Amino acid sequence: MSNNDNQSDLDKAWEHYKKIRDALIGLYEILDLNLEKDNIFYQCAVDNLENLK
Fold this sequence. Notes:
This protein has one domain. It is mainly alpha-helical. The chain has helices at residues 3-32, 40-51.
């Protein structure tokens, strides 16, 4: 494997890592909300969690 191929693989892995990290941060923010059923954010959080299925 050449150095360019190795660097390309590392770049791809780093991009995948950043996407996964951002998704997990977003999920944490959803779960960290103080959710009350009367709160508009409750339904938004439920909808977002349903979309993750």
